[in-house]
Amino acid sequence: MSDVMTEQPVTVGREQSLSTAHEMMREHHCRHLPVLERGDLVGVVTQRDLYFLETIAGADLDADKVDDAMSTDAYAVSPDATLEEVAKEMAAHKYGCAVVMERGRVIGIFTATDALRVLAGT
Amino acid sequence: MSCAEVYRYMTPSPQTIQRDAVLADARASMQRYGVRHLPVLDGPDLVGILYERELAVAERIADPSKVVVGDVMSPDPFLALPSTPLAEVAAEMVRCRFGAAVIVDRGNVVGVFTAVDALRALAEGPPSQLPGVVPP
Q1: Superfamily for A6-120?
Q2: What is the mean pLDDT of chain A?
């Protein structure tokens, strides 16, 4: 996985505000943020989640928390996991991303878009 | 670069829906067939694709028994032939951020290729080892 993931050590806490998550995504040019609680992966929040909550559900980005938006369907893998086994698991459960963790720290993300990049050879 | 053709990994014979069908019918179809993309037809002609996530958004703000698929679909879907190389389809999906490719053969919809299909392809092994590959 370490060969194909997008390196991204940025994470967010579940009690942080949606506006903080939004700002982090903007600053680090990412669209997925792993959510940690006391070092454990507890979910993933995506740009799409934020957009949906803000525009449709009328969320207050400053008051509402990451916990309100995140998906708890988080799939953690080690950097040594093979692409084949991760892709198989993601396809079986329709996970949007896999969070690559090493010694308790998030080091990268592998998304379905990354899967397309691998197939494209880019 | 992989030379495997997209038809080997597409979801074949997908369900389709007419543009004048209501969203409630589209939701029922997605649930019945366990799919998240529906090619949209106007009579026999392909005119768009309906993504489940956009259907979900529309259902929150409008009456799904009254709004029609044509108002919510993404028009001008990305089309590919069954023989189009998988790598080419994947590259275009990345470049233009398409969520799916509709595979057409002689004017007929014969499949849909999505990111989940891409994951299933990768689950079979490295792209260079996918069936149909001609080594460089």
Answers
A1: CBS-domain (3.10.580.10)
A2: 88
